[in-house]
Amino acid sequence: MKAYFCDQFVLPLPLGHRFPMQKYKLLRDQIALFFPLIELTQAPEASDGQLALVHTVDYIEAVVKGQLSAQQQKEIGFPWSEAMVERSRRSVGATVAACQTALNEGIAGNLAGGTHHAYSNKGSGFCVFNDVAVASRMIQILWARQNKSIHSPAFKVAIIDLDVHQGDGTAAIFKNDDSVWTLSIHGATNFPFQKQQSSQDVALADGCDDKPYCLALKQALVELEHNFKADFVIYVAGADPLKTDRLGKLSLSPEGLQTRDKIVFEWAYERRLPLAFCMAGGYSHSIADTVNAQKNTFEMALFYWQKWQERRRSEATSA
Ligand SMILES: [Zn+2]
User: In this structure, what is the dihedral angle of CA atoms 48, 118, 279, 160, given to the nearest 10 degrees?
Assistant: First the structure.
């Protein structure tokens, strides 16, 4: 299974900054150590043209040329630097690459990404560009090219966003777009305090734990399927619903989070929907808790990737 990383492009942060930047490198080390079947690949950069499928030219220029105002940088939560631009491009490129790979191989992942608070014209909440939104557009275009169709929205993308924070930027970007379904399951009282309207929102009470969470997820997938005929899934697998998370306010156990991942991967596998996934948030008091949860997501993904390959082989021999 292919997985794309960009942790070597480190974003310089002031001492004591609350964003756990080290988690990306730690995750790559864990994956390299435990999962030889996962092929780690450096993420390509997203081009200006790719970013412009979602973001305004003014905003892209402000980011690229270092012209973000102090207020814009504050809303993003990172100070501007050349490295921030490169890292943000690579993080988008990783999700785009994961989508392209998943289209052919069933499943692929990004060790970063899930920057769902970025809007078309502004960044927010540690998110500069919206990788999931750009990748949704790119995979529609790629599909149209492969199928010699001029109608790329015919390829329908379901975004299943299970980060504990609402995918507000993604919801706003696809608000009037029938070809992309945005499902967000998030904490009702958590950031962003002014929510956007996703295609489907499930707001959970503080303290929600494994059982009601997984039930809500299963019900949400039934509703999604009832309303939308997806061709492709992008899974935003935030590790911040964990009980140990500083920002999450929910109470999932590591096992509960594994069950969550299994529900999503199995749902897509059974429906033969290619799936790309990315990491999004994770701010546990001990960084090891976040990294371990993300490693578990990769383990579950690998299990279903192998099932994809087995199914292909057995169908090829029986054909
Ligand atoms: Zn989050």
Answer: -110
Structure tokens at 40: 């780690």
The pair phi, psi for residue 245, each rounded to 5°, is: -75, 140
Q: How far is the CA of 150 from the centre of ligand 1 (A)?
A: 36
CA of 162 to the centre of ligand 1 (A): 9
- Domains and their CATH numbers in the chain: 2-318 (3.40.800.20)
Q: Is the pTM of this model over 0.85?
A: yes
- Residues 7-41 as b or e (16 or more Cβ within 10 Å = b): bebebeeeeeeeebeebbebbbebbeeebeebeee
- Is the separation of the CB atoms in 87 and 24 below 8 Å? no
Do residues 86 and 137 touch, judged by C-beta distance below 8 A? no
Q: For residue range 269-294, what is the model confidence (pLDDT) as tens digits?
A: 999 999 999 999 999 999 999 999 99
pLDDT of 68 over the 90 cut: yes
Distance 147 CA to ligand 1 centre (A): 36
Q: Cα torsion for 125, 129, 131, 136, to the nearest 10°?
A: 120
CA of 241 to the centre of ligand 1 (A): 8
Give residue 28 CA to ligand 1 midpoint distance, Å: 20
The rounded Å distance from CA 310 to ligand 1 centre is 34
Q: How far is the CA of 238 from the centre of ligand 1 (A)?
A: 6
In 10 A of CB 171, how many CB atoms? 25
Q: Where are the beta strands (DSSP E) in the chain?
A: 2-5, 39-42, 107-110, 157-161, 180-187, 200-204, 232-236, 275-278
268 Cα to the center of ligand 1, angstroms = 23
